[in-house]
Amino acid sequence: MAMNSKPLRNIYNVTRLNREVRTILDTGFPLIWLEGELSNLACPASGHWYFSLKDDHAQVRCAMFRTRNRLLRFVPRNGMQVIARAKVGLYEPRGEFQLVIEHLEEAGEGALRQQFEQLKNKLNAQGLFAAEIKKTLPHIPKRIGVITSPTGAAIHDVLTTLKRRFASLEIIIYPVNVQGKTAAADIATTIQLADKRKECDVLLLTRGGGSLEDLWSFNEEVVAQAIFNCAIPLVSAIGHDIDFTIADFVADIRAATPTAAAELVSPDTKHWSQQFSGFQKRLIQLITNSLSQKQVRIDQVTKNIVHPKHYIEETSQRVDELLYRLQNRIKTQVSTKELQLSSLQTRCHAHNPKYKIQVSKQQTIQLFQKIKAAQIHQLDVLKQQFIRNTSILEAVSPLATLNRGYAYVNKVNSNAIIKDITQIESGDELITTVAKGKFSSTVTNKWTED
Questions:
Q1: 176, 246, 357, 443: which is deepest, by most CB within 10 A?
Q2: Nearest 10 degrees: CA dihedral of 316, 322, 324, 328?
Q3: Residues 189 and 261 occupy one common structural domain
Q4: What local confidence, expressed as pLDDT, does residue 392 receive?
Q5: What is the CATH number of the domain that holds 37?
Q6: What does pLDDT average to in each consecutive run of 10 residues of the chain (450 residues)?
Q7: For the OB-fold nucleic acid binding domain, which residue ranges apply (predicted)?
């Protein structure tokens, strides 16, 4: 049977192809510097930036993630000429060739950046950055020298931090120009002066943040040589934590900020207080143990010796005991007398005429109020009773009867009311009373009802 002589084919899928190409790009290219014009800038809500870098004949897509772009000191715009430090790669999902930007700067800084790198390599080759020549900072400096602008924000941060951490430190400020054409020479001369005068235990070279041009005086070789030749330990704190200058590499220690530099050169009062407290406890313990051992030895030697001091101590102890008892006795008696005095004062207050008058006055007022209330109540009761009795009397009053058309009759000179015909005779003069008035009459006849 004939054998198939065709070779096996290694067939890629798209995912595999893109992944292997990306691996080749990631491993085959180092970080590169690239100059071009920025265009198609997009800044979505994620914080990442996406744009293109182009020249007259080509362009390439770029991505700069927010962890890197937030470190920039300028705001990029379309049409701006920039220099980028980038990693060559491939965006696998779309198979697009792109650069991942690690750093971005305006193209105007390119020449300065090149000078920086050249001087950095030169001084490194001369050994100015060697770790073994770095000087150690003193643990507790007596005096600190600060080389900076006397009007900048850095001096305020440094002085505030030093005062907070160790207020008793002496500080000498060496004023210099930190920016401008003469700044580098001024800084170098001041470092040499501070080193010559030997007034300080440590020097702090600092200024606030700024652009590469603003910080350039600290990238001059004259400043680097002055720092290298300085016998006093020197700490640099130039700009912010993202700013690096030649002075930072030559200095014995580099701090990210002026505040951090002040913390490096100054002891912490709280920390040293804790240290001294620990030393004090250990010393007290050592002395106590030593005294205890000595006392044991003394006790062994004097165990069988009766010394006059023993009797003196016993007598002294007895006196102390009696004094203590006497003091307690006096305190008890004083307390008792105070209680008795308080009781007497209370009793005297109760029998005080003024107090009694005041109490009687209060009682009189209360009784008067009660009597007045009782009188008012009694008057109300009597008034109601009078009204009821009046109503009753009016109901049975002869006047009420008269008002209904009746009358009553009595003889002249007699108040007896005539109720029966037998009480009168013919010729008697009578007085008849009606509701509104009286009239007289004479009896002419009388008769009875059958």
A1: 246
A2: -170
A3: yes
A4: 81
A5: 2.40.50.140
A6: 65 90 88 91 92 92 92 86 91 90 79 81 92 90 92 90 87 92 93 94 90 85 94 90 86 92 85 76 86 81 66 76 88 89 80 78 88 89 87 74 79 82 82 84 79
A7: 12-104
Q: Do 231 and 195 meet the contact criterion of CB atoms below 8 Å apart?
A: yes
Q: Determine how β-strand 96-106 pairs with β-strand 59-64.
A: parallel
- The answer to whether position 349 is within a domain reads no
In a domain, 281, yes or no: no
CA atoms of 134 and 405, how far apart (whole Å):
144
Which structure tokens are listed for 447?
């008769």
Residue 363 within any structural domain of the chain: no
**Could you say which DSSP state residue 198 is in?**
T
- Kindly state whether residue 224 falls inside one of the protein's structural domains: yes
Pull the structure tokens for residue 83.
């220099």
- If you search the block for the tokens 């007596």, which residue do you land on? 142
Which amino acid type is present at position 76? P
Instruction: Give the range of the structural domain holding residue 383, as residue numbers without chain letter.
Output: 369-396
Q: Is residue 392 located within the same domain as residue 427?
A: no
**Cα–Cα distance between 146 and 168 in angstroms, integer?**
16
pTM of the predicted protein model: 0.44
Q: Tell which residue, 389, 129, 345, has the closest CA to residue 246.
A: 129
Other residues' Cβ atoms within 10 Å of the Cβ of residue 343: 10
Q: Vertex 403, ends 397 and 404: CA angle to 5°? A: 100
Please tell me the total count of domains within the chain. 4
377 and 413 fall within a common domain: no
- Structure tokens of 306? 């009766």
Q: What is the pLDDT of residue 203?
A: 94
| Residue in 189, 363, 165 with CA at minimum distance from that of residue 267 | 165
- Report the C-alpha gap between 406 and 154 in whole angstroms: 126
Q: Quick one: CA dihedral 56, 60, 66, 69, positive or negative?
A: negative
- pLDDT for 311: 65
Q: What Å distances lie between residue 33 and 69, 82, 111, 238, CA to CA?
A: 16, 10, 13, 25
Distances in Å between the Cα of 312 and the Cα atoms of 45, 309, 315, 322 are: 91, 5, 5, 15
